[in-house]
Write a structure and sequence with these properties.
elongated; single chain; Tetracycline Repressor, domain 2; mainly alpha; 2 domains
Length: 198
């Protein structure tokens, strides 16, 4: 027999899974709480008990997606040869091509708030910047403010891709722009910064 803790976790997972599906299909504003509960096969009361509101459920869905992006970047590092700062950023841009991530990214700033979105992205980017510095790929720089600026740029790229409805041209433009931006930070083998060619 499942424990109370296990039942709670099962309910939360079902609600997050249902929320991710419906928010991705319709957008936050067009998803009633009753529809989420029905898809999760729980009562609306269970949703409110677990999350308190639809907004809090969306925040949980968004946090899960951010975690998946972080996991994808780590996987790319492990399977893609020598890790680079540019590789980390390109893995993030590639993750933005996921349709669920796209739709939820559009709603993210309005529901979650731009500052919280940047806080989460900044944490992920700081790790990449510190690793790049340790590899000698990045000169000394104020890591936290630089991570914040890169977070804003990459999140804006994600929103641009999302609003382009899967356009390959939009993904390429975002990728090329991020490459140009990041390559200006990378230390070349001759000691200066380098610029990647598109």
């Amino acid at each position: 027999m499942a424990t109370q803790s296990e039942r709670t976790e099962t309910t939360r997972k079902a609600l997050i899974d249902a929320g991710r599906v419906l928010f991705a299909e319709r957008g936050y504003a067009d998803v009633p709480v009753a529809d989420i509960a029905a898809l999760a096969q729980v009562t609306t009361g269970a949703l409110y008990h677990q999350f308190g509101s639809k907004e809090e459920l969306f925040r949980a869905v968004y946090a899960e997606l951010v975690g998946r992006v972080g996991a994808r970047i780590l996987e790319e590092r492990q399977t893609g040869g020598d890790p680079t700062l540019l590789g980390d950023c390109e893995a993030y841009i590639a993750a933005c091509a996921d349709p669920a991530f796209n739709r939820i990214t559009i709603d993210g700033p309005a529901v979650v708030g731009w500052d919280q979105i940047l806080d989460e992205a900044q944490s992920m980017i700081e790790v990449s910047l510190k690793d790049a510095h340790a590899r000698g790929e990045l000169a000394d720089a104020p890591t936290a403010p630089l991570a914040r600026m890169l977070a804003a740029a990459l999140k804006e790229a994600a929103v641009t891709i999302a609003k382009a409805d899967g356009s390959r041209a939009a993904r390429k433009a975002a990728r090329d722009s991020s490459r140009w931006l990041i390559s200006g930070l990378v230390v070349s083998r001759t000691g200066g910064t380098s610029r990647a060619r598109s």
